[in-house]
Amino acid sequence: MPRSLAHGDYRLMMAVESASRANSWYRVLVDHRSGQLSCDCPAWTFRQNARTSGTERSCKHTHIAQPLMNAEGGVNVRLAGLPVERASGAAAENHRLVQATRQQWPGLGGRWSFEQRTSNIDNQPYHFVHLHLTTGNGTTATGLVAFARRYHPTTESMVSGVAGWAGYAIAAEIARTAGYTLAGQPPEHFKVTRRTTTTPGRHLGLTDILRVGDQVDLGDGYTPTQRAENTLRLFLGETLYAQLERQHFLDVSSVRYAHERRVYRIRRDPAKQRERRVRLFIDGQYTQDLCIVRGQDVPEADHWMTNFLTLLSDEERALSVVQSYNIFPPHSDDYYEREEETVPAVWMPCVA
Ligand SMILES: [Zn+2]
């Protein structure tokens, strides 16, 4: 799969709030090929000659992140610092921070755990929140957010940041593991101060998608439908989003039914109104339609994204809601004209 040359191939390892500006975030990224960390704080950005002077390019944020990094570029289960709270399984799922993340990224399925610790960065007190998901498909993904305690003293004040940053990192890693390396490029900064939403061609940022906590209404005038579309577009990235717009589907290769080279073709209504049935391919042959019913009052883009993330993360759970009366013969929802399949559905193994 081609990778974005413009943006490189990065994974968001940690988001760190500025110690001097509330809700201004630095992104610590891992270069997938070299394993090198980068940061967009001024110290790292301007230290461009570090390599030639014989030292590794770094900043206080990459210093914090480096020892936490595991072999996959994710975060170790154990953080440093004083433990505040930790939970796993059902207790984690019922925790406000995990709930908000699942609300923001519906469809992510598996066993959640989370941990919060306090520690200092450069003598400034910080909260570290670490989310971990072992998916039903058997892969793992992590998200780590460091909040300046002076700006985010309470759990509730951290809800948007955790759902936005940690949730994004987890969803991105799951898409990447399933072969969608173009999805989940690290998002823009949390706060967009130098641009306005009216600028044509402006890149979407996390502010354009967040819908949790007390920051639902950011005064940007987005409706839930627009916000859901923004989420899909930001997460997929321009190339994949354009592909979805053009062909009206993306394929997900089965993990559970790898032996039959099963592919789920997750289709999208060109008019972005009604839900379309998922087309099932076995060894390249279109065999069935699966009806995954949309939840009440959920924007169509949300429904599509939910199906996409559910099949990527927890195929068994996705299939468990498809009862026998929701399985149909091919072309069962070709309402207006027969929609033939012209693009081969090619099964690909999981890259993990
Ligand atoms: Zn930095």
Model description:
With 352 residues, the chain is of the alpha+beta class. It contains eight helices and twelve strands. The strands form two sheets. It has a seven-stranded mixed beta sheet. Helix 4 packs across helix 5 and helix 6 packs across helix 7 (300-313). The two termini are 15 Å apart. The model is unreliable at 1-6, 190-199 and 212-216 (pLDDT under 50). Bound molecules: zinc ion.
Largest sheet: 7 strands, mixed
User: What is the strand arrangement across the widest sheet?
Assistant: 3-2-1-7-6-5-4
Helical coverage, percent range: 25-40%
Overall average pLDDT: 85
Main traits of this protein?
disordered N terminus, binds zinc ion, elongated, 25% helix, 5-stranded antiparallel sheet, 7-stranded mixed sheet, alpha+beta
